[in-house]
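PT: before anyone asks, these are the final sequences, not the draft ones from last week. 509 residues across everything. Please model them as a single complex and drop the result in this thread when it's through.
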Amino acid sequence: MIQVSNITKKFDGFTAVDNISFSVAEGEIFGFLGPNGAGKTTTIKMLTTLLYPTSGEININGYNPVIDKNKVRHSFGIVFQDPSLDDELTAYENMEFHGVLYKVPKDIRKNRIEQLLKFVELWDRKNDLVKYFSGGMKRRLEIARGLIHHPKILFLDEPTLGLDPQTRNHIWSYIKNLNKEEKMTVFFTTHYIEEAERAAHRVAIIDHGKIIAAGTPQTLEEQTKTSSLEDAFLKLTGHVIREEEANPIDRLRLRHRFRKR
Amino acid sequence: MSTIYILWLRQLKRYFRSKSRIIGSLAQPLLFLLALGFGFGPIYQRAGGGNYIEFLAPGIIAMSIIFTAIFSGIEIIWDKQFGFLKETLVAPVSRLNIMLGRTLGGATVASFQGIIVFLISLIIGFRPENIMLLPLALIFMILTALLFTAIGTAIASLLEDMQGFQLIINFLVMPLFFLSGALFPLNTMPKALVIAARLDPLSYGVDGLRGTLVNGAHFGLSVDFTVLTIVVVLFLIIGSYLFSRIEI
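LR: through. Structure below.
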């Protein structure tokens, strides 16, 4: 379903992703793990047509994201690392907006929106503005939204970041359910290694733009002679804390904080 | 088509839901109309210019349009920062349609704002000379609104955060407004300012409005219309080109 061969992404001389290759089979849940700044999000952006690779080839559902952009875009749904809902619209309007963009016919759209909003337990809040939603509700809405056009692949970039264990469990049970019933391929990144251990069929660990290990959680534990994926992860990537460059939102938040003082 | 429509609709919904924004953006033109209109009115009259409110109102209508329009365009930066832009950019639709939908939405909102200011100016004492020309005035409002939403979109595509916003207001919007002849007649200005006004696309919007509302066109309506249309097309092309190059 996803084939990546020798892709590299350079930003002004800095190599974010360095010659990586991997593949994900149909119906697989694939975890993409790595410390901050390892190149996870850059890779997802290349897989989802938001960035072009500097070199190398990608194949998503049989299409090349550089050439057949729209076919690739129809093939996947995505939940981004940071929220991407319109706060000034209601939950229903956010769903509707997505359905129209993906050209889902009106009657099918109506049914699916209802079905999905019920699935993530937001149907009774459908006419509320998203700005009044909690972090967990927004995440659930984003997952529901990403599914309106029935994608073959679901990309999740840290889908459970900043959520409490209850909500995280909830969300993972949805995802696993989808994977089982719809045979949906799931590609996710996370910092919660124990989530990957529980949910992923296979994982790859990326560090400094290179894939340093890949396989089932069990094989990685065996390879590193550790008893959990988290220990294996730490053994492979070391204990040094990584610095990430602040994005504009972080800078904005910082300014807010300074002004309040 | 459906893409353009849904993006247009989104701009409208956002606008009509933020009551504070509507009221806030009406305060400034109202202040200008009252303070300048009644403040300079007697002097303008004594200098032989006639009724200043008649002269000023089209300029203030244009002002409210340019501010709302630029702001609508700049809103893309918000969407970039708060993530919504990504949702539209990974969708299987062309960026040109996204940009057009947004721009039409922003322009609709700005034109609507222009109409409200027009109605307010009626209360204050503004009387259009020829009711028959009102539809033509509306066309000039829409053209002006389109132009500055496109300019806002172009600028927003280049900026990463709202840091540059003040810069745009002070170094672009304000000069464009003050040099456009919105507040004073162009024909008595020094040569350098007249040249600047000729280069300012807002001048043609103001002039077109003045020409249709009170018969006082400086350049002539056909010139206004031609120049505006050309510049609108030009900036729609520039705006959609820059928008298509956004990487996030």
